[in-house]
Write a structure and sequence with these properties.
Layout (H helix, E strand, L loop, with lengths): L3 H12 L2 E6 L5 E4 L2 E2 L7 H22 L8 H20 L2 H8 L3 H9 L2 H6 L1 H12 L11
Antiparallel strand pairs: 1-2, 2-3
Helix pairs in contact: 2-3, 3-7, 4-5, 5-7
């Protein structure tokens, strides 16, 4: 078959490489080196790879903005990481009183504050699940496959 490295160089020359979605000359949503997202999409493995990278990047942002989060138990760290993933770090940082309450260790009050927000109305079950996790420090049963 063809020399892959030569093919990569050739396609990068002809297609270019864009790291943000764009419309190609045929009007299709495209990314990278000519990846037609509308017709081809991505594979499950590519989705898993992107998700792992996105989680790692968001975790770095979270710990840079709120270093004290590293001292929380793992479940509560995941709650804040989930919220940051959903809203971005700027959105999470807008929860000033809630974050101060979490930092002070009053997890039940923080859980109540989470539910008393515009965000909770927008995300529904996600907010309810995350607030239970914050209040209890435990994973909800629906996160685990049946045994």
């Amino acid at each position: 078959m063809v020399d892959r490295e030569a093919m990569v160089r050739q396609l990068r020359l002809h297609e270019g490489e864009r790291l943000r979605p764009y419309r190609c000359t045929a009007g299709k949503l495209t990314i990278g080196v000519g990846r037609n997202l509308e017709d081809r999409g991505i594979t499950a493995q590519e989705s898993a790879y992107l998700l792992a990278n996105d989680i790692a990047a968001e975790e770095r942002e979270l710990l840079r903005a709120l270093p004290w989060v590293a001292k929380l138990d793992e479940v509560r760290q995941r709650v804040l990481l989930d919220m940051s993933f959903n809203m971005g770090i700027v959105g999470l940082l807008a929860f000033k009183r809630t974050l101060a309450t979490i930092q002070a260790g009053d997890y039940r009050a923080a859980a109540s504050m989470m539910l008393d927000s515009k965000w909770a109305g927008q995300v529904g079950q996600r907010a309810e699940r995350l607030s239970r996790m914050m209040a209890t420090g435990k994973d909800p049963r629906e996160l685990w496959p049946p045994s």
